[in-house]
Each structure stands twice: as structure tokens, then as C-alpha cells.
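Human: If only I could read C-alpha cells as easily as an amino acid sequence. Underneath my words sits a plain record pairing an amino acid chain with its C-alpha cells. Take your time, and here it is.
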Amino acid sequence: MENTVIRERLSRLRAVMAKAHVDYCLMPTADFHNSEYVADFFKAREHFCGFTGSNGTLVVGFDWAGMWTDGRYFIQAEREMAGTGVTLFRMADEGVPTINEYLREHMREGETLGFDGRVVSAQLGLGLEKDLAPLGVRIECDRDLAGESWPDRPPLPLNDLLVIDDALAGKSAEEKLSEVRKALREKNANAFLLSSLDDICWLLNIRGGDVACSPVALSYLFLTEERVILYLQEGEVTADAAAYLDRIGVERRGYFEIMEAPDEFVAKDTIVLYDQARTGYALMKKLTAASDKAGTKTVTDRNPTLLLKAVKNETELKNIREIYIRDSAVLCRFLWWVKTHVGKEPITEVSAAEKLDAMRASLPGFLELSFPTISAYGANAAMMHYEATPEAYAELKPEGMYLVDSGGTYFGGTTDVTRTILLGPVSDEVRRHFTAVAVGMLRLANARFLRGCTGRNLDILARGPVWDMNIDYKCGTGHGVGYMLNVHEGPHNIRWRSIEGEKEAEILPGMIVSDEPGVYIEGSHGIRTESILEAVAGEKNGDGQFMGFRMLTWVPIDTDGIDVRLMQPAEREQLNAYHAGVYERIAPLIEEPEIRAWLKEATKPV
């Protein structure tokens, strides 16, 4: 069935492209800061192709359109773009060209590629420049073609700033600024252009509400040895926030004034560091032009805030551990409710998610969900980032499996956890898959490794049991988790595939990382077991500093899905030890006798 709404939107865009003499228009999933989750104002890609996932890039020509996304979203994108005329390109699949490869093959000499240079990262823009230069392709980056074709575009979000007390942050903004300035000197720079929202909020101990599920404020920051200049919408600065920013010496400028900042602040002795992956292409062009004019240079490297933010301080770690126990207790109560009420009262994916969200919201210190709850029954769970809606959902039945991936942001931490539970009979094949996923999660959680290892060294521990069945999950195994910030953060991760040009980060004590292997069989079932881990230092001896993980998530793995015959004795011991830890920590938080009895049964040794 033809999707006339999307086709009409593409027609309007193509008309604007024709007037602007643009042959291809590129739209990533990004705001001006290359954020993962974006406000409605920035959802141009979604508006013009219908795909609602958090990662994808749309390219539109006059007689063709294509959308590239990763393996988490293949099934979802195919369904949502049905009838739009937009071709799905499955990134990393054999024979599928990258965007740059496609454009290099299909664009003709002298044609023009257009995009809003504020939402395309410098890294992506420079790559396009390089790859298309042999064709003489012109790049038009100063027009917002999507905005010109979007008559009812939502406004930019505008929400109050929130100041985080130093006692909750563990370090004052002044201390963090001093650490960043030291890092700049080590990189032979004396100024810093910072565009990533979570880094800015972490650095200044502030939070915002401009992006759903990410407590950040639209802003930029320019830092020198003497000055800190924050660019943001003035309407977001409350009296308390203004007083705080004045006290710590932060100057304020209008949000859009950042585009003129390089001309104002780059002098002959100014060496500015910026991160190409998190800085907009148009802003990078302004910065390099100002540096060229001043006869100085720029330094491109990872934001030094990235690593400083990823290694949590002792206050943050203490609060995170406490938050995860309380958050785990909420999920235990919810899983008991689903297991004992399914088939006895109507429960849908939507109503289940609403119940869990309300349970989390009742916890003291709750700020917001850390991402929209993934509540998926049966075959819907095969879509990794599936989201049920009031218009499209499934009803839970006393058969098959139910997957719930959820989390919250609280004063004191950000959580993320996935459990898959059995609601009734499943096949032997499903039990094999379920057991392999549980074993993989536990193997990684119990890993011992030398300091210096990155996530690529560790991924096989979680993925190995799945690979042993000649199955793969089309995503990484683990991501960093923020502190009252983004649920996904770097620089560390756990995955097997390397990405060209991206530095790998070693796993350091104090880093928080997810552990989430899975199996996703289209049209049949999806299984994910996700726990969050804290990296800790272990024994140090002549062989080096050994490392391991401390478990933060304390929620049972449904032993109804476990085939113990497929587990080695050591793996059964790991499962039993984990479940003993669940009961020890969670039972004291459960007052209801029936739920406590269920928890006792759910955590008994296998």
C-alpha cells in the first residue's frame, strides 16, 4: 500500500532542491550536536521517510531515495517505510554500499550534494568532501533544505536549566574545568570548543530538559585558560541558574551566536581543540577559517571530557550502586506482576509499559525515563528497538516470551536493564537460544582481564555462545552509561567489529558498561538479557593489573527458559551465585509476602 503522506513530503523536498540546484540531499539522525536522541525539531529524517529509529541517514535524489541504518533496526525500518518508495540499505551487510560509496558511484561530475551543515558532523562532512572531490561535486551546507520543505515543523525546545549540587556530582564545576584545562595543555592546545550536550552538562554540573530521555540543554561551550563562555537559549536560565553560572565565572551568550564565536575568540596565539565526531561541519568550517585568518592552527581529538566523564568518581559510584538496587526492585515487582497476571486479565505491550513506567516514576528522585520502554511480546521482540504504540501493539498471552528493556534517570544515576521472561510453553530451540544468551551475559560479567583491554578483547565472552550456534546479533554487546545523563555514552564499548578512524578505549576502573547479548529471529522471537556492570581493579602482580566487573543489576534471569543440560558446571555456579546475590539485595526491599515468595522461587539454585 502506497504511503502518500511520505511521498508528498518527498515531492515538496525535491521542489526545494530543484530551486536550490541541489541534486542529492542528505539528512542524518542528529541535532546541531550530533546527539543520539534528538528533539522533535530535528527529526527531519523521520519526517521525510517515516522511520522512527534513533539511527539512520536518508539520502534523497530527484527520482530515488535511500535510508541507511544498522542491524538493530532492519525489521522496524522495513515495516515503517513500506509504501514510501524509500530503499532500505542494511549497513554492514555483505554487498551493501556505504553512503559515500553510493554517492561516489551515482553522482555525476559537477553535481551538488546538499545538507544542513549544522547537523552533519565535521567527520562525516570531511569524509564526503574527500570521497566526492574526484567528481568535482559541490557541497551546499549553508541551507536547511528540510526545514524549507517542512511547513509545520515543531519549535526548538525551551526548558529550565537545573543546577546539580556539588555533593551529588562528587566534584565541583571548578574542579572539572581545571582538569579539562590540564588535558588541553597536554594536547598543546589552549582553547576548547565543546558541542556535545552531555559533556557540557557534566562539566558545568547542570542538567536540562531539551531532549526526551536525555536531561540536557541545547548549548555550546567555548573554554580558554581564563574564560568559560556558554551559548544557550536565554529563556532557559532561571534566576537560580543565573546566580550559579555567575558564581563559577561562566559568561552567557545566545545559542545561535556560536557561529560567530570563532571570529571573535580565535587570535594569533589561540590553538583550539575540537572533536570532529561531535562538532558540526558548518561550525568546523567557521573555526578553521578563523584559525587560518589568525595564522594559527586547530587540534582535532576526542573531547577530553569524554574520558573524564566516563570514569565515575566515588560519589557517583556510591549513588549508582544504590540506585540500581532500588531500580532492580521495581523491575522484580513488575516481572512478578506480568508472570502472575498474564492470561487472568488483559495485558498489552502498551499497558505493561505504562505500568512499569509508573512504578519507576514513584521512586524518590525520579527525573524521567532514560529511553522509551521497549515492551515486546513474541515476534515483536525480534525488533531490537521495537516500540509499541496505542495504534499498533500485541496482547500478552500465557504462551511464548515477553521482552522488556527499560530504565530511568534519577538524582543519583541512570539505569538500563533488559529481561526476557517466559509466559508459557516454548520450543526446545528457543530454550537453547535463551540459555546461550544467559550464559554469554554471565561469562562477560565474571570476566577477568588485564588492564589495557578494550571492549573488542571482551566481546567474544558474551557473543561466543551465540556464535557457537552460527547466530549473531547485529549490534554491539555493551555501551557506557551516563550519570544522570545519556543512557549511551563513550568512549568505551563492547563489540567485535572495528570502525575505521574510531579510537578504541580501554576499560578503566570506574567505567559503567552494559552487558547485553541476544538472539533475534525475525517473525519468531527475540531474547535479550542485559545487566549493567562497573569495571573494577582486581589483583595486581608481576603479570600486571588485573580487572573485573562488579554487578549493578539485580534482577532474576528466568530459569523457566534455562536448559541446565546445556550449561557447564562453572556456568551453573555463576547463575546460582548471581541469583543468591539478587535475593540477598532485593528481598529486604519487598514487603509483600507473595512477591517475596516468588523472588525466592525465581532465585533458587539450578
User: Anything to note?
Assistant: The chain is about 35% helix and 20% strand. The chain has three domains: 4-148, 162-303, 311-596. The first strand starts at residue 24 and ends at 28. Residues 379 and 523 are 5 Å apart (CA to CA).
